[in-house]
Amino acid sequence: MSTRYFGARVTRNEDPALLTGRGLFVDDVRLPGMVHGAVLRSPHAHARLRRVDARRARTAPGVLAVFTHADLGTLGDPLPKLIPHPALTHQKTQHALAPDTVRYVGEPVAFVVAESRYAAEDACDLIEVDYTPLPAAATLEAAAAAGAPRVHDDMDSNICAHYTQRVGDVDAAFAQAAHRFRERFVIDRGASCPMETRGVVASWDARTRRLDIWDSTQAPIPIRNGLAQMLGLAEQDVRVVAPDVGGGFGPKIMMFYPEEILVPFAAMRLGRAVKWIEDRREHLVATNQEREQIHDAEIAVDSDGGILGVRTIFLYDAGAYIPYGLIVPIVASTTLPGPYRVPNYHCEFRAVFTNKTMVSPYRGAGRPHGVFVMERLLDRVARELRVDRAEVRRRNFIQPDEFPYDVGLIYQDNAPLRYDSGNYPACFDRALELIDYSGWDARQSTARAAGRLLGCGVACYVEGTGIGPYEGARITVEPSGRVFVATGVGTQGQGHLTTFAQIAADVLGVSPRDVTVRTGDTGLFGWGTGTFASRAATVAGNAVALAAKAVRDKARIVAASLLEAPPEEIELSNGNAFVRGVASRSVTLGALARAANPLRFAMPKEWEGPGLEAVRYFAPSQGAFSNGVHACVVEVDAETGGLTIERYVVVHDCGRVINPLILEGQIQGGVAQGLGGAFWEKLAYDDQAQPLSTTFMDYLLPTAAEMPPLAIAHLETPSPLNPLGVKGAGEAGVIPVAAVVVQAVEDALAPFGIHITEAPLSPSRLRQLIVEGRRSP
Amino acid sequence: MKLEGTNTLAAPIETVWKMINDPDALRRCTPGLKELKEIEPDHYEATLNVGIAAVKGTYKGTLTISDKRAPSHYMLVLEGSGGTGFMKGVGLVDLEPQGEGTLLKWTGDMQIGGLIAGVGQRMLGGVGKMLIGQFFKCLEQHLGEDV
Fold it and tell me: Among partner residues B81, B86, B117, which is closest to A692 by beta-carbon distance?
């Protein structure tokens, strides 16, 4: 196949509509007679619900209905367990509305539907709820301890899972090691904060008995399937559309959020279209969060800094319920070894319920934790052994001739963790070059002499991407000659309408501008699992390529009969099919599509049906593993704790690059989120698990002003696991950012002898560390 | 959120004691108190209208006085909840004669939850101190009238 568009910096097909305000987000859906929902949420982190009295609210002006748990019937049962795991012994799941106990601030207690959102919110204030407050399991470590307040009182403790994986003989490796270093690492909570918060609109047609739903979700098809089952409807009678979605970042793959049940339920009950849009304050308590883990980690090395063994025993904060299972801690454990040879490895975690918002993957999904632990351990080795930190890493890299490399663990997709391809030393050298590492010591000394605290950091990672089970695509050539691609993988800003179009365009000999990609509409494509784990380009992208090839083959067969030439001699280019070497003997793709759908006369048997259309699926046997290196230079203001990131470098290898422009955008956005998680963003809670950062006044997102200049370079080591040779890149930007920033800050503050084992930092925390560093000799 | 402070009042301890147990004085001087209904001695139903940071809300709840050791000590518990969350304040008051007047020492522990906690927690220390300050200032101003 020609590769004219694959690899090119094609500007995005989706941008003209988005940039001129013609996108369709859930809040843009306005239906006749539509009414509005508001959720009454618990102000307590843990309390018994003694009475919910909605009588006054029900008679308030404009109110159509107030629903409490008692109104929900079987929809009030615990919501589905999504991803079970043998080690997950207590998979407690959330309810659409709390039956008798609330377990985090923000847990839904009642749902009000009124003529306006204004009236609905006012009516929430009229609902009288008697709470008996209970002690809260507020912090991860305290919640894991014996005697802690129990989040679920039918359990003996808050531990819902305990899981260990081992490679080699860790105890023997530690016993024989020349050096052993032990650390405790603490990573705190953050929120994903997409520009578009969650939202749901539902409309029920009592005559056709069809339910239409617009949902700002990453998983429209599983939502459709689950809702059909819970509501007793045929899957074909439920249509879920995830239209333009303004950012997902992981939490929108979670289901079912209570509102995803409440809105359709209310629409069916009332016979009116119902809309609920999450406001920003709700988002910071009602949408899943991530990142809180405490690792007790240890590394054993030989006298040259060669890794002999690593051990981490960690706590994972699950929040109040764990519908999504153990994906995050499993990803954290399996990402930790990264690009290094770790012959003996022990990872063990306990998942712990706390009285906080639920936890499920947020961009990175455990990868940042694994990388933070490993890179901080290697920094410790470098410092203790007085070896340059770059050299310590270089000595331990898996080499390019060692692929496929079996790490010896089971990955999140339940398949062996086997790296497919990569060139880790080359990536590393390129990053060092771009950050001018060889001139670093001299530059730092000069700066220090001038009273400036400059630091440099460099960190590596391997990113599991492109896991199964499958995705599919249907490609149709319209009679106009336009190519129509439908896939079940939704898009939340990743540029799928362009990258998938590029893939199809090359195969079918058209421009990406002539390819319309539609995603996230179960009415158009009903098979798929969702957009997560950096898998859309790899899994759906290859399905698109396979479907396009099938359509090309069909086009050749149809063209062969029209052009009186054998199919092997038909080529597709510039929207035409022509006989190779005879450009004048050609027919447009549109004419072929029309010819392939005749109104009368017998259809040739070899056409195998009408039209230029094909459906194909791609089901990888395992994930594809991208890798990368980040490096940065920072300056710390010792008086204020302020941090300036002077320069930031990303060298990344995700196999063959479909569109460098889109890839760079992905990485840039990831770095911004990573920097937030490294220095600014922290979800604070008080000792009763009251969230204290529920506005952007307290939850600080990095802005354009904090973003450093970025230098991004790509290496391309194709994946042998799929026809396109691609790997995922969705989480690349965010993964090692905390590790690299903390290392750089520590480097800058070396004169104070400060040792940092936590993320995120903040100006005040940094200032505190500096003051403590000054005090200690 | 723990707070504490002292006030010196220009009246003998017995007068001050009487006053801090007087429903009328409590009604007049508790900031934001809209309604105080005596259910039984030392037990009231209260409606408060308080603003913390940008969040103004109405809280319905109870005010209870207990652990009384006349004329020098009691505990006051104020609990309320409303659309903007809930609050619970526990105050310990100790009186000591000081010359002609009385030294009033207080410690308070305040908890808030829901919207007011998310938005107002950082302001709580300042707001709490201000409200308690207003309370005692008001008592002081009305000392003469009530004696």
Answer: B117
